[in-house]
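Hey team,

Filing this mostly as a record. A colleague (T.K.) asked me to run one chain through the structure pipeline before their review meeting, and I want the input and output archived in the tracker in case anyone asks later how it was produced. No errors, nothing strange. Just documentation.

Input sequence:
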Amino acid sequence: MLKEFKDFIAKGNVMDMAVGIIIGAAFTAIVKSLVGDLINPIIGLFTGGVDFTNKYAVLSGEVAPGTSLDAARESGAAIFAYGAFIMAVINFLIIAFVVFLLVKAVNKAKEAAEKEKEAAPEAPKGPSEVELLTEIRDALVAK
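Output structure:
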């Protein structure tokens, strides 16, 4: 059973998947920074400095006005965190767009490689096997 597990892990698909997950985790950190550090401030400029991440509505319980989302959650009140949802949607759209651009670039590179392969001149072909045998036969008959 241990040997089967080693064989399974050693297969290319499992290793490719593991590398993809690791790169995806690192990519998530980059996207979070992109959204939090670059895009949110720009959105804040257009919305008059409103930060969506701390926008919420109290469904039940007591929460003082101006309390942060984290503090409101810790108070035990039922919170409708629509701002966090808006930011999650924005994060998703950004990630989807970046992945789209990456896939588009990879497809373009593949197409260019295929065009180079198709455009490469073929090596001149020599005579076929039948033609060689015919020449040998004719040469032997002529002697």
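Quick notes for T.K.: The chain has five helices and two strands. The domain at 2-122 is CATH 1.10.1200.120 (Non-ribosomal Peptide Synthetase Peptidyl Carrier Protein; Chain A).
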